[in-house]
Amino acid sequence: MMKKKFRSFLYGAASVALLTACSGGDTAESGSSQTAEGTDDQTLTVWAWDTNFNIPIMEKAGEYYINDGNEDVKVNVIEMSNEDTKQKMVAAFTSNVSEGLPDIVLMDDYDLQNYLNNYEGKFAELSETIDFSNFADYKVDNATVNDGVYALPFDSGAAGLYYRIDYLSEAGYSEEDMQDLTWSEFVDIGKDVKEKTGKWFLTFIPSRGTHYIQMAMQSAGLWYFDENGDVFLKDNPAVHEMVDILKEIDEYDLANPVDYYSPEAVGAITSGEVAAVNSAIWYSATIRSAEDQAGKWAYTNIPKLETVENATHYSNLGGASWVVLNDSPNKELAIDFLNSVYAGNEEFYQDILVENGAVGTYLPSQTGEAYQYEDPFFNDAQIYKDFSGWIPEIPAVDYGNNTQAVVDALRANIQSYFDGSLTLDEMLEEAENQYKTQVGE
After folding, report:
1. Which residues make Cβ contacts (< 8 Å) with residue 406, sequence separation at least 6?
2. Which of 74, 103, 184, 297 has its CA 20 to 30 A from that of 416?
3. Global pTM value
């Protein structure tokens, strides 16, 4: 499926992606030179965030490339937060100045279409060199504009439901009971868990729980925009069902009301205060960090929508891709590097799976020995094999140009439905109107 080019509008030069596998941090250097000085300089400069995930993985990719006969090449990875990356790129693009920019940039998938459409010609087209048939379709779709592919897919945000076996058992539920749930069944289980164990079922603020809406929408091949690129809330069946689910979670006080990505939320999980988490494969590292909880966690696929045709148990949350800047003096070298390692080296993917817990979306790599790993934390379950097996089933959706603007509008209005001051249709209409005002429609 090729992307339809949407209207050219950038919502906020520094808009922050709602959900990413690894959040950005303060700007810092992880190398000696911020930019390549010209085509004679075999230094590839990369901007990425997260010193525990993206950065060490890219540094390792550099080692693979150098050891594969490219001894004169240096890969210089600069730590740059997601927000700072976007601010600096927008400033450079709008002033037509490429000096000071890197060769390769990490971009989260929710932002990708925004930048590809609004800054045409600023990103290198990659399909003449890279075989994208080897990557998950939903990731390639998100990197495609018209007939060109402009980003190399990296990590998967394949989503699942993690849950505490002991707390569910105390509430009367077996692991078999947790398989193939609907969202309403999931909430009913949560009520029992809260009542019978006294534990929080979840940890997030329901009125800000748009990540739940997004997981559910993509599981049915839907998003915040319709096929014409127009905002799609009031008549979106997935949004209707999931806002009611969030309202019920709020009404029955099932969720510890702290921000999903906050240290408080992570602490609630690792301290044993929470019974379940709907998140992506990358969240398994957070759960696994509570070593005293080994053997107490299991996982399954996410709950399914009941009111939406073609709904599945498979979805995505977060994830990122690599882009090459078109004005890079080392553009061809950068493309060759990505092609050689990220689009051709299965050993590399086995390595980052074992060492970094990274499930890539390069499909040939997912049959390797590392994917057969039986994780003792999850009672010897083959977690990487299972989550990677779900990747081909994830529906592809168009994240559009202004996902963050819709998220902001929805979050600004959803409480009015929870407290009864607006009906669901009225609230969604108000959110649509706020979005249109914000983006100038």
Report:
1. 224, 225, 231, 233, 431, 435
2. 184
3. 0.81
